[in-house]
Amino acid sequence: MTDNVKNVLHTGISVYHMEESVEWYRKNLGFEVVKDDGYCPPLSAKIVFMEKDGYQLELFEYDEPKEIPKDRLTPNTDLQTVGTKHVAFATDDMDALKAGFIENGVDIAHEVRMGEDAVMFIRDCNGVLIEFIQQK
């Protein structure tokens, strides 16, 4: 059975405003649009795929998006809620990454050291949590 599971294809993220979100992921994380499916009537949503280094995000903008529950906006509280949590990226320079985020006005949600590793959570322009880890 496990021989049939292959590589990761993408992570899906629902957003409030597609154009703002595409620009946010381009400017702050270096993702570029690789496919714009436009409006998908069966879903009542716009769909755009973005990619960086072979990894894709699938962004959905629904006609009537539901607001993120407040307990999903804080990393430690969100981790207690059953379900998929966040996407995590590696960095080799947390200080430079943080400085760039501050310069761009990115919402830094949480910073912590886990042993020798530096960990930082940010929120995208929709409030979605994203994690960054610098391992020693």
UniProtKB/TrEMBL annotation:
Q: Name one Pfam family in it.
A: Glyoxalase
Q: Which residues form the VOC domain?
A: 7-135
InterPro entries referenced in this protein's UniProt entry, alphabetically? Glyas_Bleomycin-R_OHBP_Dase (IPR029068), Glyas_Fos-R_dOase_dom (IPR004360), MMCE/EMCE_epimerase (IPR051785), VOC_core (IPR037523)
Q: Which key words are in the record?
A: Metal-binding
Asked if Metal-binding is a keyword of the record, the answer is yes
Q: Establish whether keyword Metal-binding is in the entry.
A: yes
Question: In terms of domain of life, where is this protein from?
Answer: Bacteria
Which named protein is this?
VOC family protein
Classification via CDD domains: VOC (cd06587)
